[in-house]
Amino acid sequence: MIKDFNNIIQIKQAGFEGFKTKGELFIDSSYVPKVKGVYFVLFQSSKPSFLEVGTGGFFKGNNPNISLEILKKK
Questions:
Q1: Do 3 and 10 contact (CB within 8 A), yes or no?
Q2: Residue 62's beta-bridge partner residues?
Q3: Distances (CA, A) of 20 to 16, 36, 40, 63, 71
Q4: C-alpha–C-alpha distance, residues 35 and 16, integer Å
Q5: What is the 3-state secondary structure (H, E, C) of the chain?
Q6: pTM to 2 decimal places
Q7: What is the pLDDT of residues 13-60, one digit of tens each?
């Protein structure tokens, strides 16, 4: 059972494996399996940073971007 989701030792003991950094995934996306499963994203920095405007574009004619203020609150 994972009690601290920022504790990589507990995460590994729970059976998660195949850890890759964001940089590794940008270089070679084939690291991401093409099978259904449970995937875990671990953010280990003390404070996230956000882009002023997202790079994903519009979705079904709607702008999915939200303000930095809302992102920082969440």
A1: yes
A2: 59
A3: 12, 18, 11, 30, 25
A4: 15
A5: CCCCCCCHHHHHHCCCCCCCCHHHHHHCHHHCCCCCCCCCCCCCCCCCCCCCCCCCCCECCECCCCCHHHHHHC
A6: 0.46
A7: 988 888 888 888 889 988 888 888 888 788 776 676 788 888 878 888
